[in-house]
Amino acid sequence: MATTVPNQNPPTALAPRDNRFPRFWAGQSVSQFGDRITELALPLLAVTTLDATPAQVATLTALIWAPNLLAILLGSWVDQQRRKRRLMVLADLIRAAALLTLPIGYALGTVPLAQLYAVALVTGAAGVLFNCAYPSFFARLVEPADYVRANSRLSTSRSASYVAGPALGGALIQALTAPVAVVADALSFLVSAVLIGRIPLDEPQPATGGDDASFVGRARDGLAFTLRHPVLRAALGCATTVNFFTFIAQGLLVLFAGRTLGLSAGAIGLALGLGSTGALLGALLAPRISRALGMGRTIVLGAVLFPAPLALAAVAGGPAWARAATLCAAEFLMGAGVMLFDIPLNSLQTSVIPDEVRSRVSGAFATVNYGIRPLGALTGGLLADLVGLRPTLVLAAFGGVLAALWLLPSPIPRVRSLDPVAEADADAKAAPERDRVADPAPAAR
């Protein structure tokens, strides 16, 4: 039987066609393009300039995601702050300042590995702050019926950045050096801060109710809600598993392309950029595929298609053009998969989380889901040193595909859409059960 999802979001949200959403969309688009440059520049700087080992490159990736281990506490704090928009602006400014220390250090004659680690940690922490404030901001900006469409637009921009960003980043790095190239990302965060800061948005005073309103109690409440909710629990298990295994490979892919496949920075950027057209195509088609297959089945499809192509990258060989083409094909399929997974899943999660616990649930989700990423990256570095890069990529592909097993017994595969008319009818029939399963009862706090 098809399942619809109850709407628990504020009726005062704004549709994407409101002129405030395009402003936010523009800021995020600019920021995404800058991120692609830094994602290529940091590991290449470590590999080419500092002669970093696989374990050191993996540590760099791990430090970017390590602050997510504290997201559950930060989300609890963010939930009690009224001005989520200001927190997002602050996060952008912190990231810009941290990145600008790299060209400054380069101008002074040195960029030690310790500085790369510090930049990774600070930008990661600011990213956690931004992401904890983002869900409430998004839910106030976009109507529930438009979640998939709005997420598709944001993901389309992100996908487009993966198409042009790596090629642009590779060219900038070759022309200007990696430390100077990250200036583009710093400037993109400043643009994002200006655009978000100019968005007028009604942000009501957060609720302070609950039997346990302490800082730790609110954090525990967010985790309890996540684990008790059948949709969020399955989504968390699947996303955490797939992130662990894909991040075994994430920090090593550039290293693999450069050292094992022998590709230049420009060739790596071009291969990853062309391959990222898969993400662009996936983002554009995700709403249509979700309508055709149903949201839930699209999520399951994406959960499999996202990690599996890592095995294709692992077998790359032959002449340089063939190695680059195989890397490109793997990136294409992975990009399409991650969009088919992320866009409907993000929309579904936004629909089932009440606004009053949105940031703390987001923090709890990030602590587990994103917190596993540094562990995956460190595991990848250890495995690469022990068994080599190719076997490590194959293991990552196989383990990542198994993540879909979390979804199959859950309600997610039966979810067809977020249609508000169907939701109203489903709400009337399912209210008693939903109240029992979904509400963050005082006993769970």
UniProtKB/TrEMBL annotation:
Taxonomy, superkingdom: Bacteria
Domain Major facilitator superfamily (MFS) profile: 230-445
Biased composition (Basic and acidic residues): 426-438
Signal sequence, renumbered to the chain: none
PROSITE patterns with a match to the protein in the record: MFS (PS50850)
Membrane topology according to the record: Multi-pass membrane protein
Entry's transmembrane regions: 55-75, 87-108, 114-134, 234-257, 263-286, 298-318, 324-343, 389-408
Molecular function per GO: transmembrane transporter activity
Main localization of the protein described in the UniProt heading: membrane
Alphabetized CDD domains for the sequence: MFS_MefA_like
Alphabetic keyword roster: Cell membrane, Membrane, Transmembrane, Transmembrane helix
Compartmental location: Cell membrane
Annotated spans, Disordered: 423-445
Full protein name: MFS transporter
Source lineage: Bacteria, Bacillati, Actinomycetota, Actinomycetes, Kitasatosporales
